[in-house]
Amino acid sequence: MKKIIALALSLMLLLGCVSALAEEESDQRGSVTMLGAFTIEFNLIPDGYTLSRPTKNSEMEYEAMIQSPEAGKPNMILYMAFNDAWDGVETLADATEQDIEEVKQSFYDVLEFDDGDLSFEEGKTGEGTPLMIVKSVDGDFGAVYTVYKGHEIEIDIYPEGEEDKVTDELFAALNTFLTNVKFTPVEE
Question: pLDDT, tens digit, for every residue of 82-108?
């Protein structure tokens, strides 16, 4: 009888380990549930990069790293936070022109760039969610910003070394990454 109980416990521990490994693999593909409101699925993380499990910075703010173990590749930080100012706003398509200008100005203010040092482009995910693509003129910084159901979602890109730059190739990989982002409301 003791052997059967020991075998059953061993089997449960083994299944627990397999389950934990499967969960970690899922995180590497890039699925994040945001505050119980929706799930963001990143189906094509850029080659050589992994998405860390999001950490909770505050009640309504999460952060995750998109990193490569290879030296010389830029680091990316994914920020997700609910913002009362965007409450009731589904996507950037619902934002006013003044809202968009305030977001642009916030990049200048927070990052301390001079006027004209950033360029802003529009993009869309594969699901049609509007994106704001931000690039510094000198190549030292890049970001992609969007809003979904009152949540701000931003990916900042930082070159590893002072001589390194955010390249067009990285933005192309990031564009592929974001084009395949899928926002799925959590069913109640």
Answer: 888 898 898 999 999 999 999 999 999
